[in-house]
Amino acid sequence: MDHIRAMRVFIRVAERGSLTAASDELGYARGAASSIVKELERHMGVQLLERTTRKIRLTEEGSHYVERARAILADIAELEEEIGAAERSPHGLLRVQIPPGITRLIVAPALPGFIAQYPGIELEILSRSDLPDFVGLRLDAAVVVGPMAELDVVARPLGHLPAMTVAAPAYLERRGTPIVPADIAGHDCIRTISTATGSPVIWRFRENGKDVRIAVPGPLAFESPEAAVAAARRGGGILQIASYLVYDDIRSGRLVSVLDAFRPEGPTLQIVHPRHRRKPRRLKVFEDFLSDLNLRFRSKWNIRDSQSPGPGRLVTPSE
């Protein structure tokens, strides 16, 4: 029996939840995956799948086999890559989940340069903000904002994601400009909903050397950050959001930053991958690329503090 092929087939069956889908995806004949799994079960002397007419389910032994098989295949891939590293550049497929706004505004424009440097790497980017499903989506890694304590992952911090508190000039003319974080209580706030928790995001400020957290009031709440920005442009209220999402609006004057003297450090941006998998060289170079990209863009996202001439004036790389 070809143990390596059996591992790959069984992992794909577990990921797809279907013997037929696994066969089709791997380019085998329709019944090939079923035959390979049955041969594997005979060899192991245990049942790895529970089969019904409608679906299949991993047994306890099957779940353990999948976990160990993934680790073994990752070790093999890493060994092959290490041995051939001196002779060839990183290569292979990478499937990475990245939040939509970060994908569209930051990562995607820089990817042609990355591929030009590493032509052997094939990238598949999934633009999602929810918790990464490494098995179901066959992900190698995911870029996430904030902690991922609920997942068994290895995380590499990429830096902090600067946040800004902004509003449209028309709104501030009508309702006044908040001077300290406590003033937020008297304003309409546009809230964003966390895709991880389903609850509105708590606003953060830095006051007197301490972190201040405020559950803000407001009639509007959006899961989509882009929708929240659109509402802020039309004078819907004050919004706290990642700087990169409103950079162009601040420069054009559509939005104005407020409470800059109390700006928080922002949540940690990190790239994570499953703890039980070895990190291939192609993922290592992609992590380095993202880290460098974040450093280069931080100056573009950040704004001067409240002592700078004019509210909400941005620092551009040329300044």
Automatic annotation (TrEMBL):
Task: Cite the HTH lysR-type domain residue spans from the record.
Answer: 1-59
Which InterPro entries does the entry link to? LysR-type_TF_proteobact-type, LysR_HTH_N, LysR_subst-bd, WH-like_DNA-bd_sf, WH_DNA-bd_sf
Give the matching PROSITE patterns.
HTH_LYSR (PS50931)
Q: Which Pfam families match?
A: HTH_1 (PF00126), LysR_substrate (PF03466)
Where on the tree of life does the source sit, at the highest rank?
A: Bacteria
Q: Which key words tag this protein in UniProt?
A: DNA-binding, Transcription, Transcription regulation
Family as reported in the entry's similarity comment: Belongs to the LysR transcriptional regulatory family.
Q: Which PANTHER family match?
A: HTH-TYPE TRANSCRIPTIONAL REGULATOR, LYSR FAMILY TRANSCRIPTIONAL REGULATOR
Question: What's the protein here called?
Answer: LysR substrate-binding domain-containing protein
